Amino acid sequence: MTLSPGIGVRHGARDDNEPASDASVVKESWEMPDVFAVLFDRHAGDIHRYVARRLGVDAADDLMAETFVIAFQQRRRYDLSQAQARPWLYGIATNLVGRHRRAEARRLRAMSRAASLASSGESEGGEPMEDRVAERVSAERSSGVLAGALAKLPARHRDVLLLVAWGDLDYAETAESLGIPIGTVRSRLHRARAQLRRTVGAQDVPSAAALPKEHDHG
Q1: Cα 4 from chain centroid (whole Å)
Q2: Other CB atoms within 10 Å distance of the CB of residue 209
């Protein structure tokens, strides 16, 4: 199967022209594999943005593609009672990110240091500061303080926090994505938020607004 936009788009729709659920697309793809590309069309952009925020654009290109390859290979194991495949896909992507924990932490620390240098007007290696910042500051424009705080979070807490904050999953979807109880999601998110606020909130960093809201929408 080739995973690219446009393939299989003629499938995955109901007779009344309303889009079929993700679960219906997965089931249909059991017999017609090309139909699986409908899920790629629907969700690849979101998965790419999520991975890019965590590991950078270059890594996101490969990991997004790998996410859908793995999903395709495992499609017969998909729980068809789940109409939306987003938690499943984010779970696969997060597991792939987990293979690059050190790279993610290095990237966050580099963002933190670059932002610190930019604010102090210093430069490294004689390169113009604007070039350094352009290379290192992430698309989501997180502050250096927030990036540094994220790097210090335990990996399991960071996964929950970023699935909610950047993946826009609710608590139930995050639990499904990671294969953990919803109570564990709440606990890890609370601890992650508290640790970040000790670092970020105390310094009144504007990008602290990127943290999940206090209400439980799961």
Answers
A1: 20
A2: 9
